[in-house]
Amino acid sequence: MLIGQFCEYDGQSRGRIKRGLVVADVAKEAAERAAAMCRDRFNVCPDIVIEGNTDFKLTYVRSHLHHILFELLKNSARAVVDQHLGATGAERRKRLRLSSKGHLGSNGLPPVHVVIAGGKEDCVVKVSDEGGGIPRSGLAKIWSYQYTTAADDDKAKTAQEQTFRDNFYGVGYGLPIARVFARYFGGELKIISTEGWGTDAYIYINRLESAALEVLPD
Questions:
Q1: Annotated catalytic residue 28
Q2: Is 66 annotated in the active site?
Q3: Domain ranges of the chain
Q4: Each residue's pLDDT tens digit, 142-172
Q5: Which of 73, 80, 127, 153 is 20–30 Å from 46 (CA)?
Q6: 75 an active-site residue?
Q7: 112-118 vs 48-52, strand pairing mode
Q8: Alpha helix locations (H) across 86-130?
Q9: What is the pLDDT of residues 52-81, one digit of tens each?
Q10: CATH topology for 3-206?
């Protein structure tokens, strides 16, 4: 089935494909949600900077794009806080001195960057952080439905805390489902890690309606 056959012309349903979807607007909503969750957990959050072609529009499912961006931004924000506020003393000063060549955000943390670009074939959204990256041996695990980033000793004391913990750290469905959404109409989600520095995530969204087939997960 073609992507154009799903199009919702009135734009009222968040679960259907919408024409003229402004990517930056969805990124802003996802950033605000991720930042609020990060502040609830750590009382601080790195700035999230949205840049590039902020007027770019495409045809896509708004809720799918929101989920993908939210998962990436939530993970990036947490990683930055863990990397820079988790260190103490000289090690923390060293990390902050090296980070962003001194271009820190309003809260003293290196910002998370969202770059939007529109090519002929794809809209590409890059989410970059300086959260220390992922070891090469652990990259395959992030796509596992059993994987969580929570530490073993980070136990929830109440059902409410457990729900928050699951939403914030993930219980194995955040990134895997994000990749399913990205691939649904011929797109892709790729994670590139620089261990010791940070992570770059690339969302590829197919712009060619005639070629964007509905790709069902295996």
A1: no
A2: no
A3: 3-206
A4: 998 776 655 544 554 544 444 444 454 544 4
A5: 153
A6: yes
A7: parallel
A8: 89-98
A9: 999 999 999 999 999 999 999 999 999 999
A10: Heat Shock Protein 90 (3.30.565)
